[in-house]
Structures are given as C-alpha cells and as structure tokens.
Amino acid sequence: MLRLHIQTSEVLRYLRVTGQPDKALQARVNQACEAVCQAAVPRYTCRYFPLERRPEGLCPRGSGLVLAGQAIAKHLEGCDGCYLMAATLGAGVDRLIARSQASDMAFALMLDAAASDGIEYVCDYAEAELSFAERQKGGFLTGRFSPGYGDLSITIQKDFLFAVDAPRKIGLTVSAGGILLPQKSVTAILGRADRPVGGVKKGCGSCSLREDCQYRKDGLRCGR
Amino acid sequence: MDVRTRLKNGFLLWDGAMGTMLQKSGVELGRYPETLAITNPQAIYQIQKQYVDAGCDVLLADTFGCNPYKLEGSGYEVEQVAAAAIAIAKRAAEGRAIVALDTSIIGELLEPAGTLKFEQAVEIYARLMRAGAAGGVDMICIETMTDLGETKAALLAAKETCDLPVLCSMTFEENGRTFTGVDIPSMALTLEGLGADAIGINCSLGPVEIEPLVRQLLEWTRLPVVIMPNAGLPVMEGDTLRYSITQEEFVAQMAKYADLGVAGFGGCCGTTPEYIAGLRRMLDQKKRVVLSPPRRSALCSGSHTEVIDGAKIIGERINPTGKKLFKQAVLEGNYDYILAQGVAQAQAGAEILDVNLGVPGIDEAAAMVRAVKSLQGILSQPLVIDSSDPAAIEAALRVYNGKPLVNSVNGEEAVLRRILPLVKKYGAAVIGLTLDEKGIPATAEERLAIARRILARAQEYGIPKEDVYIDCLTLTVSAEQEKAPETLRAIRLVKEELGLKTVLGVSNISFGLPQRELVNTAFLTMALQAGLDLAILNPNVPAMTGAVDAFRVITGADQGAAAYIARHAGAQSASAAAPSGVQEISAAIAAGLREDCRRLTRELLAGEDALSIINGRLIPALDQVGSRYEKGEIFLPQLIQSAEAAKEAFQVIKEQIASQPGQSGVTKGKILIATVKGDIHDIGKNIVKVILENYGYQIIDLGKDVPVETVVQAARDEQVRLVGLSALMTTTVKNMAATIQALRQAGLGCKVFVGGAVLTPEFAREIGADFYARDAKESVDIARRVLDEGE
Question: Which of left, alpha, beta for B443 (phi over 0: left; psi -120 to 50: alpha)?
C-alpha cells in the first residue's frame, strides 16, 4: 500500500500559520500527520481517453463527458488525449476527523489540514507514475486540472467518476450536491501530447476566486 | 429442488463476468452500461447463453447498475431496464438455469459520511426488487458491496418486498477489509442475523488472494458460502487490461474451496464461459462438505466485532438519568455532549457503549436514531440500544449498522411478545432482566426461573441462545443488603444451568453509601468472579476499568499482563497530570489548559457569581486571545484550543447553575447555525460554534445537509435573532440563497450571517445575507453587534 508522506510545512500553511510555530503546536501537528498516515488507505485510478474536439467542448472518447469552457480548452491545448484521474485517502480519514471534532476541535483542524496535504501527495505520486509511463512511450503530460477550476463546471463529477469506474475501483462517490465522498479525494484531468505541453499552470492567475481570496490577501497560496 | 435447499446440501454454480466479456466482444460500455439490455440485447444474450451452455445453475440478469442514481439522464427507468434484462436472461436460461436479480452499490455514500438517507437507500433497492419479483426472478443477488449499512438496506428491501432467497456478497481488499472498513466477522454476524440465505465474497481479488478471507468466512457463518473471485489481479499489457490467472489455475484453486466447505461458486471480472465450464466439471466430481462452525456470542459495528469471550466493559454514561445537563442538551438538540461522552468512554476502555435517550417530553425514537447515527459515524464500538419504548428500539434497530444488543426485555409476556420479534428481525442480541410484573424476585432461584423463561421465549422466536444475555439485577446494598449475594449467586446459576452470557450494571450497588468507588469495585470484582461477562459501568472512573484490567491479569485473560502494564505503567494519564501551577484563569485560557480552567473556575465560584466570572474574566481573556490572533501572533489552532479551554470553564459554571434550582441560564443570546442542504462540510461551522459558545452564546446547531424548511422552523420555534449558514460549494450555495429567502418570507426578523470558502462579501450581499463572516473570529464580532448591541 502506498505510504503517505505529509509535509508539516504544508500543513502549517493550510493552518495559516506564519513564521516559526511554537514547540507545542509543532508537536501536535506532527501527531496529526502521523494519525492521518495511520488512518489513510490511499487509492487512485487513472484511465486514458483519446480527445475529440466538438463544438460543445472537449470529449474524452467513450467517457460520455463533455469538458466545456475556456480554461480546460487552454489546459488541453495541443493534446491528443487525456488521463482522467481519481484519488482518495479513504473513509477512515473522514471518520478520524469527525471523531476528533467531538473531543478536540483544534486537533481536528490539524488532521483536516494534514489530510489535505496527504491527498495532494497521492495525486503527485499518481501523476509521476503516469508521467513516467508516458515518457517511456515518448509522450508528455500537462499538470492536473480539476473539475471546478476556472470555468470547468463541478457538475461533471458524477459522470467523471463513472467514466473511471471510481465507485467500484476505489470506493469514491459524489453526493447529490457535488461533494466527493470520502471527502479527502481529488479528481483531475491531465492532457497528453507528443511534445511537451504546459497546460494551465497552477496558480492564482487561473482561479475564479483570485479577487477575493484571503490566502492571496495574506500573501499565501492555497495549494502547493 | 428449491434454491435454499440446494445451497444447504449441494453446490450451486453461478455465471461469470459480463462487463469484461462485453469489452472483449468490442461493445462500448459507455456511461450507461445497464441500458444495453434495451439498446443491445443481443450482445447480452450471446454472453449469457454461453454461460448457460457452460453449465451454470444461476444466471445473473444484467441489472447490476440498475438504480435511479446510475440511470439518471439515461432516458430510461429502473422498471424498463430491469424488465428487459430479466427477459433476456430468461430467454438465455431456457429453464436450464435459474435467473437471479443482480444488484450492487447505489453509487452514493450513506449518511453520515454522505447525504443518502438509510430509508432512501432501502426504497431504491425495494424499487428494483419489486421489478425483479414482477419479472419472475428466482433469487436476489446483492453483490460487490463495500458498505455494511448499504448491504443491510438492500437485504431489508429484499425481505420486505418478496420471499425470494437472497445472497449477500461483499468485496474485500487484500487487507481483509472493504473500502469502508468492514471485516469478515462483522459482515457475517450482521448479514446472518438479518436473514440472508447465503453470504459471500466476490470481485477485487483473485482466487488465490481470497483464500484467507474464505477460510475466515467459513469459520464465522453457518450460512452457505458463495465465492466469486476475479480471474486474478488486473495487469496492464500495453493499452489493454488482462487478468493474470488462467482457467486451469482458477479452477484448481476453487477446487480447494469445495473441499473446505464452500457451497456456491462463480467468477467475477476477467472470467469467461471457459472458467465456468471448468468449475462445472470440477464440481461434478466433488461432494459438498457441510461445516458446523462454533457458535459465538458477539456484537459488532460496521467495522469491528467484539467477541464476548471474557469480561468486557459497557460504558454507561450516555444516559440521562440524574444528569440535568445531559437532559438539557438533548432537549436543545445538542448532541455534541453525547458524541464527546462516546469518544471519552471509548478512549477510557469501554469496548461497547450503552445508548439511552429516555428524556421525558421528547420524541425518543427520533432522538435515539439521531444518537445511533452520529455515534456509529465516528466510533467503531458496538452499541447497546437501551430503551423501554418499543418504537425507539425499532427505529434504532433499523438504522444500526452491525449487530447491536437490545436493553432490554424481562419476564413480562407483553414485553417479550413486543420486543423479541424486533430483536429477531434485525438480528440483534438481547438482554433479559430477571424481573417480571411481580417485581424483582428475592432469591437467585426465582431469578433463574425468569431467565429460563426468557430464554425459552427467545428461542421460540428463533433467537439463538448465544444472543441472549441475562441481567440478574443489582439492588442497592444499603437498602437491601441481603440481596447482593443473591445477585452473585444468580449469575453463577444462570451460567452453570443455562450456559448463557450475563450482563450487570454495577453502579447501583453503592447508592447512598460514602466512597462509592470502593463498594463498586469490590462488587464488580465479585461479579466477574461469579462469571459476569458484560459489566455496565462508568469507564471514566479509573478504579473501575482498573478493576477489570486487574481481573484480566489474575484470570490469565491478559497474557503476561501485557495490556495491564501498557495501561498502568509509568506516569498518570494526561487528565490527572500534575498541576501546571497556573494560578490565573486568563493564563489557563491563553495556554489552552482545560483541566486548569475547570479547577480555577471551581475556585472562583466559591467567591464570585457566575455572570461576573464570565463577563469579568472569561470574555476578556478570550478577547485578548482573539486580538493576538488578529495580530497574527497566534493562529487558528491556538484560538480553538483557548476556546475549548474556556468551554471547560463554562461547563463548570453551567453545572453549578444546574445544581441550583431557580437560577436562570447565563446565555447572552441564541444563535442558530447550520450547513445548508446538500452540503456536508462542517468543520468550519463547528469551529465557529466552539468559539461562539465560549463567548457565552447559546448555539443551536442543526448540523449539516439541513433542508430549508428545517432552518425556518427552528428559527421560528427558537425565536432566534441571528442565524449563521455555511456552504462550501458553488453547487450548494444556491441552497444558502434559498434558505435566506425562506427566512425573509417567513417574516422572522432575524439577521443572517454566512461563511464558507466559496463565498465573498459581494456574493453574500447578492444572496441577501446581512453579514459575511470571513472567519470564526469575525462571527464573534457579528454576534456582538446583533445580540449585544441590538444591531
């Protein structure tokens, strides 16, 4: 089973802690990271689809999905195919966080932050695996782009999950309101091409909350 | 010969994979593979005919994903798809095989992890099963399940809509658990109790990897076991997925299982008609082995089984008797107290938790359901459903995930007749109190007689002996001293003459005496020596759990005293830590020291009144912490820690007030909060709650995924002046707008503040909110402006 690596510096960033944390806080954050690593059963699944360009948007062939909007079009510029990826830390982490809320809210917040970094790690790992495999075949990948970024509607989650058979393969579902469950989960699209492709770079430039983002106002970032 | 009989005495051979066979034949599964029964019936028929020709006894109709959630947007209804699929299967079977309705996961998570309600899940399955019965299927197969609660919903739906035999099969990973943490013992105990006709394991693993799980399942159930592995593990070869094991290897491994006692065989992903033909040839050479695994007394949750094979602790603290604050919390709909108690007792060593919500004036069934759902969402300890209200027992049994213990029945005929059928239907275990309409008998022999009668009645209802636990009743030794030895004798008699497990609440013994702990621990130890299996006690009292730990050492249950040493060696636990020397409450709050806050508040209350402590010391201390937070000197975790420490101070004050009649509360006003419909993110809301509570406001927390009407109703009933709403998704924020609109339309005159990552001040204004709370601290400022300053 994939062993998680959680960066405490990232966890502190999620907690909006600036400067050097005091020893007590650092110790608790370390405990939270360890607890998440113990409770997590990380899983991911990826599936390749050739891309069809249609008037309504980009369609991963055979998935039934339509990726509409300017942002994803820019991300997949120059790509002939894409990987749909789904990853989760599992239901045990959700239960751990919920349980902690009943007795120690501050620790629950730290667990939540640690788990957020944990799922990013799983995605990075899966992406690296895909990227390596593609490079062996002379292919290149963009970075990850998730439903909900820019103008790519989050309402495609359900079809996305069925396209990769996520409920059956990794136990990942989506609620009627569009929330991925278990909560510490990510779905992402990576474009594939025969030459290096940038995709939409991660960053504030492409985010729809850039004008109001508190992280930004504080000089921080929300993601890695 | 009917299916049930065939499974009991012989073998039954299922078909193989459909999905991988379709892909092999070049058929695109697409977004709605279920609808192939209508759009490409020939493809399905061809494959099914091959399985029938290969010699399978059971053909699964292609209804695997046939549910409203999966079919949404397809243009077809469940009934249409089911009818078509069943017709194809019947045509292919030509009477040579029986046709089974096939179903699996809905695709949405059940509450509390998700938003799908248990009863909604039951109805989704019931709809398909009605269609199945109408189509004339001979059996129902619930397979590839990962969540025990969802499996229960499907099984109940089957049993409540028809009389067909039901197979329940779950899918496990190599670590022996499903995605949601279900293990083999919990699956077996629960599903056998609920009346499945066969139980099994399918998918995810190949026949070799599945072996330890097969062996374990054969150990844990008396039901026929059905095994349908994948054709090994999936391997990417270039761009195609292949399965790693050959037909010969598959059949050879399955032959082992036939010798071990497995009754049903089939193949999942990657298998083909050749695999089934191979299984047919193999089975035709074999003789069915019927096992008799040991009968066990055990309880379980959705992820953990507690075998009652020695002294176990049932935590008694979730019970309103004598607890004014508990009653108040339940009346206010505040279940945080219950959850905190559950977590604390589990941490203190309770293996099982008793849940009693018997507060006069409430809808006990609704309260019990809410408590059970919340507790089982976060804890893995099995629960005891403790109530004298049959409606509450039934409601709780229905939603309980696992095999619970019902507390209780007694010797009264009417009670036995009312409760035992529920215990049987939901596969629970039951406690029988040795009293009846004549009261509590004086002698051990008379109590034994009642126990004998309870056992006989339970067995008449089909409840096995290992699921009957006898409570010989503890009377107060200061009032009826001669009765104490009778209880102990009764325990011994029940164990020797009836061979039943026993349970006892020990705390009652010392009522009215000083130093109750001394009497309780002595009585507990004596009862354990007499053969007590389940001790109902307060695990938060170290002496009580200590007595059980010591007993386990002396009887050898704790080999090498390993557990005892682990728990008791070295320094005291954190809660009884040496005093930190902090003398000032503002320092204790600043440092987040909970125990010190309790201690110091108690000291302060000796000389000062509650309101002056709150307004003169606690609030200013919190304000100081808040201001340091705003300046960036400390951060959210420390803010929360300080708030939780202050909460302890408030708790002490509340306890003091509760014990003094006529005192009014110290609340500065009520605030209603909720995470809106469709949204289940609640950590932000819960942080706001903790912080606001510690500034003296009474928070009414409606929870998450709260319908618009519920918010309006609660705002009206509670006459709140301030409502806080949280939403985190662009998809759910529209429900926030709808909730605000409904509040305005109801003319309640309350102010609304909103928060959540997806919100901005502009958007908050757009949807009609009065305030936008950037973070938890800002919610305090808003509360002040509205409730203290009357904005």
Answer: beta
B180 near A91, Cβ under 8 Å?
A: yes
Give me the percent of chain B exceeding a pLDDT of 70.
97
Q: How many CA atoms lie within 13 A of B581 on its CB side?
A: 0
Mean per-residue pLDDT over chain B, rounded: 93
Tell me whether strands A43-54 and A57-60 are parallel, antiparallel or unpaired: antiparallel
- Res A60 pLDDT > 90: yes
Structure tokens at B464: 């096995």
Does residue B287 register a pLDDT over 50?
yes
- How many Å apart are CA B122 and CA B124, to the nearest integer? 6
What is the reported pTM? 0.93
Q: Do B115 and A64 touch (CB under 8 A)?
A: no
**What pLDDT digit, counting tens, does each position of B471-526 carry?**
999 999 988 898 999 999 999 999 999 999 999 999 999 999 999 999 999 999 99
d(Cα B191, Cα B201) in Å, to the nearest integer? 13
- Strands (E) across B478-527 are located at 501-505
Report DSSP letters for chain A, one per residue.
-PPP---HHHHHHHTT--SPPPHHHHHHHHHHHHHHHHH---EEEEEEEEEEEETTEEEETTS---B-SHHHHHHTTT-SEEEEEEEE--HHHHHHHHHHHHH-HHHHHHHHHHHHHHHHHHHHHHHHHHHHHHHHTT-EE---B-TTSTTS-GGGHHHHHHHTTHHHHH--EE-TTS-EESSSEEEEEEEEESS----SPSSGGG-TTTTT-HHHHTT--S--
- AA identity, residue B657: I
- Between positions 93 and 122 of A, the ones with CB within 8 A of B are 94-95, 97-99, 101-106, 108-110, 112
Residue closest to B170 by CA, chosen among B190, B130, B162, B68: B190
A57/B contact by beta carbon, under 8 A: no
Question: Are the Cβ atoms of A175 and B632 closer than 8 angstroms?
Answer: no
Q: Pick the residue from chain B with its C-alpha nearest to A112.
A: B683
> Are the beta carbons of A105 and B340 separated by less than 8 Å?
no
Write out chain B residues lying below 8 Å of A102, CB-based.
Answer: 336, 339-340, 342-343, 378
Q: Which of B170, B179, B726 would best serve as a mutation to test chain A binding (most A beta carbons within 10 A)?
A: B179
Task: Match 């101070």 to its residue by tokens.
Answer: B649
Asked if residue B756 lies in contact with residue B684, where contact means CB atoms within 8 angstroms, the answer is yes
Q: Is the CB of B729 less than 8 angstroms away from the CB of A183?
A: no
Chain A CB within 8 Å of residue B390 CB: no
Contact between A17 and B342 using a beta-carbon 8 Å cutoff: no
**A214 → closest Cβ in B181, B758, B774:** B774
Nearest to B340 among A103, A106, A183 (CB): A103
Of the candidates B150, B375, B396, B728, the one whose C-alpha atom is nearest the C-alpha of residue A95 is B375
Task: Tell me the helix, strand and coil percentages in chain B, rounded to 5.
Answer: 50, 15, 35
Calpha distance B20→B413 (Å, rounded): 57
Q: Does A182 touch chain B (CB under 8 A)?
A: yes
- Asked if A154's CB is within 8 angstroms of B730's CB, the reply is yes
Question: Is the omega angle on the peptide bond into residue B637 within 30 degrees of 0, that is, cis?
Answer: no
Distance (Å, rounded) from C-alpha B338 to C-alpha B319?
9
Q: What is the ipTM of this complex?
A: 0.91
A148 shares contact with chain B (CB less than 8 Å): yes
State how far the Cα of B544 lies from the Cα of B556, in Å rounded to an integer.
19
Least-confidence region, from A186-200, B652-666, B770-784: B652-666
Judged by a CB distance cut-off of 8 A, whether residue A46 touches chain B is no
Contacts of A41 in chain B (CB under 8 A): 173, 175, 179
Set of chain A residues whose Cβ sits within 8 Å of the Cβ of B775? 214
